[in-house]
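Our platform keeps sequence and structure together, in a single record for each protein. Nothing more is needed to write down the fold, since each code stands for a local backbone conformation. An entry from our holdings is shown next, in its original layout:
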Amino acid sequence: MRVKRYIVDTMPEAMKKIREELGKDAVILNQKEVRVGGFLGLFSQKKIEVVAAVDPSIQQSKPRQQQAPVATTPVRTQTTAMTQSAATTLNVAGANAAYGINTNTRTEATAQTNPVIATTDAGKPASTATAAAVAVATEPDKQGTLVDAVNASDKSQPSKETVEEPKRTDESVLSELRQMKEMMLKLSTASREQNQDHENIQKMIEHLENQEFDSVLIEEIILHVKNQLEQSGIADPDEETVRSLVREQLEKIVYSNGVMTIAPETKIVHFVGPTGVGKTTTIAKLAALQVLENKRKVGFITADTYRIAAVEQLRTYASILNAPIEVAMSPQDLARAYESMKDLDIIFMDTAGRNFRNEMYVSELNTMLNSSEHSETYLVLSMTMKYKDMKAITENFSRIRIDRLLFSKIDESASYGAIVNLIHQFSIPLSYFTFGQQVPNDIEVVKEDRFVGQLMGEDTNE
């Protein structure tokens, strides 16, 4: 039995190559769509993988006289053009003659169940077993067709009513059928194993999905892992090996932009983000750290005049820290506030949390953030938000300059994949995590190793 695999763009192209290399007696064992080429799973091209086979003994045992053209019955409308092309190129008559199968009659069951029925050169229907094998071979999308086709041909026995000649007992024919059955079973098993990830890799994919990683990012990470395993010659990786390779890829993503906190030379720190993410409380925590740890003189400016008691909340924190506070209703008010606080070391500005989808608001905010002083802008996001909303918010606020990402309410979520998704897509560095209402205790600088451990589901309690 000679088996050959083809990777082609179209089925007609495959049939042409099969006829040229294997001859007209070739049988299509399987066909499926595959993706080849590309980089990191991207830009790959869709191809068709076709597995065909031919028995050299059939070709040698064929009569020297020229065979009559093969006739086929009409194909049902549901049968695809690809199936029609494959079915019409098979020389069923020659195969029947080689195996000594009676081609004079067929059973009624075969005519009803098989959409494609081959006929002999005399115009009579082919045997049930051969027709079933041809129909199954030309419709590889149906489950179990490879093995079932051979089982059908192996079990099929002609009835007394349909046999006109004495029954033949040819051991070579039975041996050939058994070999073909074993070969098809191996091909079917190999195909299933090829399309199924290793158990430990599948577990890691499920873990990343539970952490709400983006599907494209998961595919990229797993592709790196598979390439590393292949280069190392590891066909059966244990769980620790897979975890180590995935952790390595996560470290590259998290470390790529690093962690950036408030720089010593920064004069103005802006905080932007949607309503309800905790901007005002976060500002109070950072201002308290600057006063207590760095001994810097701080001031507050708030433009959040839309939320009830927002100004009073920040005014309370300013009173505790003995820091001045200004309310800016317009860019002119903002300029006067900067002038009154020019002698301070650092100014924290709280912006209004409004609908981030409102382009007018984003435009107004951009005007408010323009400053001649050295400044930084923090986008504050809550871990209780959906990743789809996080992504949309980041895209909108990217129209203005975003220097850092700050995530609040980190203790209210058990999945942190959304953070990695944003880092990977927008290349904005992390800064701080907040995890409670206590000022200034419930805030910390992001620790990359600990964060990766959280992503991997490791115990990171300190």
Q: What stands out?
A: The chain is about 45% helix and 15% strand. Confidence is low (pLDDT under 50) at residues 64-147, 153-167, 191-195.
